[in-house]
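Per reviewer request, we include the raw input and output of the structure prediction for the construct analysed in the revised manuscript.
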Amino acid sequence: MNLLAVCAEQGLWRSVQDLVWAMEDYLDMQGYWTERMKAIEIGVKAAQELDDRRDEGAFLGNLGNAYSDLGQVERAIESYEQALAIAREIGDRRGEAIRSHNTGDLYKDQGNIPLARQYLEQSLAIFEEIKSPYAEESRRLLGELG
């Protein structure tokens, strides 16, 4: 984390981005969730500085996952919404489907069935369009909504 902070302070954004990608899963697996969130937030900043919209969206999606894992649902939804907007902007259909699915899943857990259905139907349509095996998971969650 210290190396990441030094690279960020020096504006070495490509190195920051690479470090975050290299360490994020490790931090998650080791249970360093606060550090993981900090690293991903720095990754978002790096992607913004590099004008790398694809990685910015991916980091925001991962940040949403981190917030969700910690029970911070509103922050997770906010991150997913930002990632979803970027995916749509850059034409990343897979990213759009994943972020729609994740958002719908959170709304389902909150009991907001209309929004859950809306997002899950969007994700299912895109997953089917791109022939992704994840379509089955969106279909399953939609089935749980009744």
